[in-house]
């Protein structure tokens, strides 16, 4: 929850705008400002104070405890010009909150955290438990000193400018080791602990068994990703409470699923009890991995039979592939989500000219794998291969990456051993449509006239179907030096079903500095004026030119009324 505090009418007006925009995230604190700040500080994860920074400093200073637990505090000045991240930039999320508040209120976010200022992710913001000399190693990164990455376990990380070797080290490990001087330990969630338990097994027995297994194997409890068990035990109090104390979720599988998992130590007891010959080992191995601790039973001091079993598996790192649409070219049509994915990726794969568009958005340390035209399948294979190594990868394409771009070849290569996310972008058809007016107001279709990947016979059949169905058509890849007859042929097919005066919009380099557009008709369009940087939109029988704009009505009632 975000606490909102103001002292003046102007501050209250801005406060209320924020409260209206985020009704489920915010709570307004009324009354004397000091009391309001103290109450919000105790009750909320974050605060936005519409007060001078000096006033907020004096009010929160006596309340500060630890940067890991203090709420993030953002100040907005009386004029609404700045959103200042004051306290808890990383731990309290104030830096991100300042960006969000600034965007909503039209204020400039002010972030002074050193790593954010130079574009290096803070070691305590990587989403992993961190131990050791965080301040010293971060300072070394900021000063340009060589900091080495010792990755004992592969795991996707955002870009950090690591060196092959150096006095300082970031060690990515799930081993139970202590950091040495000049070292930071990052704990990846690489361990899955499978647990079986008899009904009523006490939490102390379950937890003691898990902690003992990890200790004996030299593994860190901070790298546990989850406790896994059979569905029948999803509500077993000892397992549920053990997971809660470890701060991890409980993941369950059906007995039928677990019975299919090959394990080294099957048993008749769980087969009789829950329908699978293994619970601990099978649930730990259900999604693959390396068995580090085979099934072991709890030892009871009272001499009674053990009530819990566990096994520990190191799962393979799941790399992450983000397929990112960059939009038509203009920076303000690049979505915030796309920008975030570009800054999150440690490896960027893309066409060289697209890489040049967004190179300035990449964080230091990003590895760039670029290639020229015609290497789409190679780029897709490269991106998937890098993700399979455990990297965080962004594969970029223009417009929307799923429309005549990189998403389809990448997903054809990818299997379920990596995580894939798609980031939509503004397509060329949409960008051109907005420039022309509203040509896509009713049913429409996009057709590529390039026969490099699709036989012309198939393309022609699709054009003819669109013509007969009276659908607005946007042609991608309409004409190149080596393909100069396809567009005239496609227009001729449409002309068999549409009047010569049917509006046609031609847009070249939509949204870019050299953008050009014109509105013509089906009879007048000269295909020789069209190239590969152009999209051509042909209206249907209802499309009209109105005040110099191309408009297709949402339905035909409007057309009938107009006539």
UniProtKB/TrEMBL annotation:
<dbReference type="InterPro" id="IPR035996">
    <property type="entry name" value="4pyrrol_Methylase_sf"/>
</dbReference>
<dbReference type="InterPro" id="IPR038029">
    <property type="entry name" value="GbiG_N_sf"/>
</dbReference>
<dbReference type="GO" id="GO:0030789">
    <property type="term" value="F:precorrin-3B C17-methyltransferase activity"/>
</dbReference>
<keyword id="KW-0949">S-adenosyl-L-methionine</keyword>
<keyword id="KW-0808">Transferase</keyword>
<dbReference type="Pfam" id="PF00590">
    <property type="entry name" value="TP_methylase"/>
</dbReference>
<feature type="domain" description="CobE/GbiG C-terminal">
    <location>
        <begin position="191"/>
        <end position="312"/>
    </location>
</feature>
<dbReference type="InterPro" id="IPR021744">
    <property type="entry name" value="CbiG_N"/>
</dbReference>
<feature type="domain" description="Tetrapyrrole methylase">
    <location>
        <begin position="320"/>
        <end position="525"/>
    </location>
</feature>
<dbReference type="InterPro" id="IPR036518">
    <property type="entry name" value="CobE/GbiG_C_sf"/>
</dbReference>
<dbReference type="Pfam" id="PF11760">
    <property type="entry name" value="CbiG_N"/>
</dbReference>
<comment type="pathway">
    <text>Cofactor biosynthesis; adenosylcobalamin biosynthesis.</text>
</comment>
<dbReference type="GO" id="GO:0032259">
    <property type="term" value="P:methylation"/>
</dbReference>
<dbReference type="InterPro" id="IPR051810">
    <property type="entry name" value="Precorrin_MeTrfase"/>
</dbReference>
<dbReference type="InterPro" id="IPR006363">
    <property type="entry name" value="Cbl_synth_CobJ/CibH_dom"/>
</dbReference>
<keyword id="KW-0169">Cobalamin biosynthesis</keyword>
<dbReference type="InterPro" id="IPR014777">
    <property type="entry name" value="4pyrrole_Mease_sub1"/>
</dbReference>
<dbReference type="InterPro" id="IPR000878">
    <property type="entry name" value="4pyrrol_Mease"/>
</dbReference>
<dbReference type="InterPro" id="IPR002750">
    <property type="entry name" value="CobE/GbiG_C"/>
</dbReference>
<dbReference type="InterPro" id="IPR014776">
    <property type="entry name" value="4pyrrole_Mease_sub2"/>
</dbReference>
<protein>
    <submittedName>
        <fullName>Precorrin-3B C(17)-methyltransferase</fullName>
        <ecNumber>2.1.1.131</ecNumber>
    </submittedName>
</protein>
<keyword id="KW-0489">Methyltransferase</keyword>
<dbReference type="Pfam" id="PF01890">
    <property type="entry name" value="CbiG_C"/>
</dbReference>
<feature type="domain" description="Cobalamin synthesis G N-terminal">
    <location>
        <begin position="36"/>
        <end position="116"/>
    </location>
</feature>
<dbReference type="GO" id="GO:0009236">
    <property type="term" value="P:cobalamin biosynthetic process"/>
</dbReference>
């Amino acid at each position: 929850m975000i606490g909102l505090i103001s002292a003046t009418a102007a501050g209250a007006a801005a406060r209320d705008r924020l409260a209206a925009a985020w009704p489920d995230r915010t709570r307004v604190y009324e009354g004397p400002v000091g009391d309001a700040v103290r109450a919000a500080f105790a009750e909320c994860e974050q605060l936005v104070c519409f007060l001078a920074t000096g006033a907020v400093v004096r009010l929160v200073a006596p309340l500060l405890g630890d940067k890991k637990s203090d709420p993030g505090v953002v100040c907005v000045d009386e004029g609404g010009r700045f959103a200042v991240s004051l306290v808890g930039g990383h731990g309290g999320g104030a830096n991100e909150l300042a960006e969000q508040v600034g965007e909503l209120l039209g204020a400039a976010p002010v972030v002074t955290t050193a790593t954010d200022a130079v574009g290096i992710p803070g070691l305590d913001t990587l989403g992993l438990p961190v131990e050791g000399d965080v301040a010293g190693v971060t300072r070394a990164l900021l000063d340009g000193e060589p900091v080495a990455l010792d990755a004992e376990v592969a795991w996707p990380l955002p870009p950090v400018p690591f060196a092959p070797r150096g006095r300082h080290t970031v060690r990515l490990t799930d081993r139970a080791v202590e950091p040495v001087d000049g070292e930071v330990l990052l704990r990846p969630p690489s361990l899955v602990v499978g647990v079986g338990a008899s009904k009523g097994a006490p939490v102390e027995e379950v937890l003691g068994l898990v902690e003992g297994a990890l200790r004996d194997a030299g593994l860190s409890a901070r790298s546990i990703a989850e406790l896994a068990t059979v569905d029948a035990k999803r509500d077993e109090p000892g397992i549920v409470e053990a997971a809660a104390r470890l701060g991890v979720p409980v993941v369950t599988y059906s007995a039928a699923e677990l019975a299919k998992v090959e394990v080294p130590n099957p048993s008749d007891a769980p087969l009789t009890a829950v329908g699978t010959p293994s619970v601990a080992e099978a649930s730990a191995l259900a999604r693959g991995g390396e068995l580090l601790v085979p099934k072991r039973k709890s030892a009871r001091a009272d001499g009674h039979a053990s009530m819990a079993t566990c096994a520990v598996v190191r799962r393979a790192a799941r790399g992450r592939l983000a397929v990112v649409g960059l939009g038509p070219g203009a920076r303000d049509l690049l979505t915030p989500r796309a920008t975030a994915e570009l800054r999150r990726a440690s490896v960027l794969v893309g066409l060289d000219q697209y890489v040049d568009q967004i190179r300035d958005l990449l964080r230091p340390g990003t590895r760039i794998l670029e290639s020229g035209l015609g290497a789409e399948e190679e780029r897709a294979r490269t991106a998937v291969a890098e993700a399979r190594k455990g990297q965080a990868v962004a594969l970029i394409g223009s417009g929307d990456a799923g429309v005549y771009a990189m998403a389809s070849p990448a997903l054809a290569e990818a299997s379920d051993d990596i995580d894939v996310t798609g980031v939509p972008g503004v397509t060329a058809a949409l960008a051109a449509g907005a420039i022309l007016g509203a040509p896509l107001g009713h049913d429409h279709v996009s057709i590529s006239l390039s026969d490099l990947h699709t036989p012309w016979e198939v393309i022609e059949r699709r054009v003819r179907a669109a013509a007969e169905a009276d659908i607005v058509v946007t042609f991608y890849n309409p004409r190149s030096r080596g393909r100069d007859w396809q567009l005239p042929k496609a227009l001729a097919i449409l002309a068999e079903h549409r009047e010569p005066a049917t509006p046609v919009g031609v847009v070249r380099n939509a949204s870019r500095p050299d953008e050009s557009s014109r509105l013509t008709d089906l009879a007048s369009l000269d295909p020789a004026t069209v190239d590969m940087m152009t999209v051509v939109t042909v209206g249907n029988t209802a499309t009209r030119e109105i005040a110099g704009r191309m408009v297709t009505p949402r339905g035909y009632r409007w057309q009938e009324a107009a006539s």
